[in-house]
Write a structure and sequence with these properties.
- There is one protein chain.
- The chain has 210 residues and is α/β, with parallel strands linked by helices.
- It is built from eight helices and nine strands.
- The strands form two sheets. It has a five-stranded parallel sheet, with helices on both faces. It has a four-stranded mixed sheet with strand order 4-3-6-5.
Length: 210
């Protein structure tokens, strides 16, 4: 039996806040499991089953929905996307921390199913900085840029639904803050119940038989 279960770390925030870069750095530093989504869309060139996505037929995906095997799912542009529950749960049961990088609506659905998860909202240093980061991508038209920017303003309103907020001034500092959050979370009494119970029983045994 593991000393403790793993923790589900849900990271989300507005587009351009840098959550993807932060997740990559966390994965470089720690032996976390990155949750992989399932999708009904066709694989793109270079994408690998079980690495980029779990590719499913629509019938397979709908069957998984019926079985309750998604923490959350949504349909985007005619394709279904979802977070498999069984794989995430098996990693947590093995004591491995799981990172889930997901949009805000998806994160709130996950929270309904896994209330004990750690929900972290990534913020840009300022809205102007967020705008500049999106512009630097060079992949947005003026119209899509304004759409993303307006969406970011609306998404920030959901911050109160999260456990923690981390401002991404620099990736290094943001990662350090998240690491500190996880140290604190692993020291929470409700996450250490089995270990505390074992210690208590051991202490009682020593008192009875010493």
């Amino acid at each position: 039996m593991q000393d403790k279960k793993g923790v589900l770390i849900v990271i989300s925030g507005p587009s351009g806040a840098g959550k993807g870069t932060i997740c990559k750095e966390l994965l470089n530093r720690h032996n976390f499991y990155l949750s992989i989504s399932a999708t009904t869309r066709s694989p793109r060139i270079g994408e690998v089953e079980g690495v980029n996505y779990y590719f499913k037929t629509r019938e397979e995906f709908l069957e998984k929905i019926e079985e309750g095997d998604f923490l959350e799912y949504a349909e985007v542009y005619g394709n279904l996307y979802g977070t498999p529950k069984s794989k995430v749960q098996s990693m947590i049961d093995e004591g491995k921390d799981v990172i889930l990088e997901i949009d805000i609506q998806g994160a709130l659905k996950v929270k309904e199913n896994v209330s004990e998860g750690v929900f972290i909202f990534i913020l840009p240093p300022s809205m102007e900085e967020l705008k500049q980061r999106i512009i630097k991508r060079g992949s947005e038209t003026e119209e899509s840029l304004m759409t993303r920017f307006k969406s970011a303003y609306q998404e920030i309103n959901y911050i109160s639904k999260y456990n923690y907020a981390v401002v991404n001034d620099t990736v290094e500092e943001a990662v350090k803050k998240i690491e500190s959050i996880l140290v604190a979370e692993n020291c929470r009494v409700d996450r250490m119940k089995e270990k505390i119970l074992d210690s208590k029983e051991g202490l009682i045994h020593e008192q009875l038989y010493d």
